[in-house]
Design a protein that fits this description.
About 40% of the residues lie in helices and about 15% in strands. By secondary structure, the chain is an alpha/beta fold. It folds into two domains: about 240 residues, 3-Layer(aba) Sandwich (Aldehyde Dehydrogenase, Chain A, domain 1); about 190 residues, Aldehyde Dehydrogenase, Chain A, domain 2 (3-Layer(aba) Sandwich), CATH 3.40.309. The strands form four sheets. The protein has an eleven-stranded mixed β-sheet with strand order 2-3-4-21-17-16-10-11-15-13-12, with helices on both faces. Strand 2 and strand 3 form a beta hairpin. Helix 3 packs antiparallel against helix 4 and helix 18 packs parallel to helix 20. The longest helix is centred in the first third of the chain and has 31 residues. The N terminus is likely disordered.
Length: about 575
């Protein structure tokens, strides 16, 4: 059974019609923030950096209570590896982003622009490639053999690259305005990170509307960003779909940023029902103000065939299993399709190891509304799916669908984002490994829905091969995705902060796919096409974010403390905790 509808299975939100704050409160919040747009434009980079310093300190002070609330909502014990995962993805990436932005602001104050570490190189077709990670000695120690790059759109020169950096600081008055941020309902750090991007990179004051799924976090966000709220540069409000609709059409809102599904974008821009469909078909939006958005993806992972050892297979099975099980699969960057080579002799062993690893990872609460219904759509199309693990009440099994026919390009697995703990695998027929890599890139670009994120996994011998290696580099260059991981989960493009996060550019509003615009981007680069993070094929000890990490909670706790205030004194304890994973 196949389906031809492309896009994300629109996640429903618990309490989508929740009233939240009354209209007069929404109006008051909007008016108060808008009244401070001039004051924000006049705030110096140095003073903005001081605000970020306080945000870091306040967030760290709130981190235990924030983590406990998120774990309670998602059914985790905060002292377990799952608690550590929530602590760092939900809080640590926010603190890291605030810290990297503070560094850039002080560089703007002293030198006129953020100083990216470089080098700046050129791709084979002449695109500038800016290395933005590691940006410190600490990065080199904590993220060994990991680099991050921002790829720039064609025909931009090095002089233009530097001259165009941080435009909101060249003429702050021209960039001032009010940004409405419609927060995500899954990852706790998403809404606050979007606030930082809009305020400190783009120069807008912000009203953040919490998603009803995680509006329990509002008191913690309020404590963490109290410096911005007290100064009148940020307001946080609550409410469901009606509140969101009202705010989107508010006369004081200059632009909108939303994290959700493409269906959410279309409802905002064109409206709903038959009238919305008509407007979309006619390219006649009801909202004409700028809308930036991050809207999910059917994220592919290309497995380059090679001669893998048993340890290689075991490690990569853990790696891919972690990508799926993180946050119970409720991530826009969760892998949804593994692309393998039909002729790879170790494919059966790898798929078996992956299924075994998923079977051994405890299932998690399916906290995001509609998860069971979305899983059922895929099971109806693929009753042969493997249901792995032993779910308790309120949980779903990890769902793996191997062997999806690659010629059935309208299959649901290639066209709909599952948004639950589910992924599929498809094998491509190719003459050899090199031609497989080319075919996998074409498949990911032309068949799989969305352009947000993708990963490539390749053994060092494949990277060094005279024929296959150049094809892998070509794959990195040619994949039309906004965030790409090579031998590392593409989620690192989101986590590092100095890299960028967002869809590959160029989607019209009538076919928005994974969205438009970027967040992150601590070095405030313009003309961004995508980010690429490269890591080691295997690492020891295993990364602390692995779902199988034995000491993940303690490692992430120390990592959070380090990000809040990096120092040599904190390093030994952090490294020792990591060694216990």
């Amino acid at each position: 059974m196949t389906m031809t509808v492309r896009g994300a299975a629109a996640p429903t939100s618990a309490g989508a019609d929740k009233v939240g704050h009354p209209i007069e409160v929404l109006d008051a919040a909007m008016s108060a923030v808008a009244a401070n747009a001039d004051a924000w434009a006049a705030t110096s980079p140095a003073d903005r950096a001081l605000l970020l310093d306080r945000i870091i300190a306040d967030t760290y002070s709130e981190s235990e209570a924030w983590t406990a609330a998120a774990c309670q909502a998602k059914g985790h014990d905060p002292k377990t590896t799952e608690g550590g995962e929530e602590m760092f993805s939900g809080i640590g990436t926010f603190i890291r982003m605030a810290r990297t932005l503070a560094v850039s602001l002080r560089q703007i104050d002293a030198e006129g622009r953020p100083q990216f570490p470089g080098p700046v190189t050129e791709s084979a077709d002449g695109r500038l490639v800016v290395q933005v990670f590691p940006s410190s000695t600490f990065d080199k120690l904590l993220y060994a053999k990991t680099t991050g790059e921002v790829w720039i759109e064609p025909r931009v020169t090095r002089a233009e690259l530097e001259a165009d950096q941080a435009p909101a600081y060249k003429d702050p008055a021209a960039w001032k305005g009010v940004s409405l941020v419609l927060g995500a309902g899954n990852v706790a750090s998403l809404g606050p990170r979007d606030v930082l991007s809009k305020l400190f990179v783009e120069g807008k004051v912000v009203v953040l509307k919490a998603n009803p799924v995680n509006d329990y976090l509002v008191p913690h966000w309020t404590a963490a960003m109290s410096s911005l709220i007290e100064a009148g540069f940020l307001a946080i409000v609550e409410g469901g779909a009606e509140a969101g609709k009202y705010l989107c059409t508010h006369e004081l809102v200059d632009e909108i940023h939303v994290t959700g599904s493409d269906k959410t974008h279309d409802a905002i821009v064109f409206g709903v029902g038959e009238e919305g469909a008509r407007r979309k078909a006619a390219n006649d939006p009801v909202i004409t103000k700028p809308v930036s958005c991050e809207l999910g993806n059917v994220s592919p992972v290309i497995i380059v065939p090679g001669d893998w050892t048993a340890k290689d297979i075991a490690f990569q099975a853990e790696n891919v299993a972690t990508m799926l099980t993180n946050n119970a699969g409720f991530n826009c960057l969760t892998p949804r399709v593994l692309i393998t080579w039909e002729g790879w002799t170790q494919r059966p062993a790898f798929l078996a190891a992956l299924a075994d690893r998923l079977r051994s990872i405890p299932t998690r609460q399916a906290y995001y509304p509609g998860a069971a219904d979305r899983q059922a759509l895929f099971l109806a199309a693929h009753p042969e799916a493997q249901l792995l693990g032993t779910p308790a009440a309120g949980e779903l099994p990890w769902t793996f669908i191997p062997g999806v026919d690659s010629s059935a390009t309208d299959d649901i697995c290639f066209n709909v984002e599952a948004f639950c703990g589910l992924m599929a695998e498809t094998a491509l027929p190719s003459a050899d490994a090199a031609s497989f890599v080319d075919a996998a890139v074409d498949f990911a670009n032309d068949v799989v829905w969305g352009t947000l994120s993708a990963s490539v996994i390749a053994h060092p011998t494949s990277l060094a091969d005279a024929t296959v290696g150049p094809r892998i580099e070509a794959a990195v260059a040619n994949l039309r995705y906004g965030g790409i991981g090579l031998n590392i989960w593409h989620a690192m493009c989101f986590a590092l902060g100095t890299t960028t996060w967002g869809a590959y550019p160029g989607h019209p509003i009538t076919d928005i796919q994974s969205g438009s615009g970027i967040v992150g981007n601590a070095f405030m680069l313009e003309h961004v096409q995508k980010s690429v993070v490269r890591g080691p094929f295997r690492s020891s000890p295993k990364p602390p974010y692995f779902s199988t990490a034995k000491n993940g909670r303690q490692t992430m706790e120390r990592m959070l403390a380090f990000e809040a205030g990096p120092s040599w004194a904190k390093l030994p304890g952090l490294l020792l905790a990591a060694l216990r994973n």
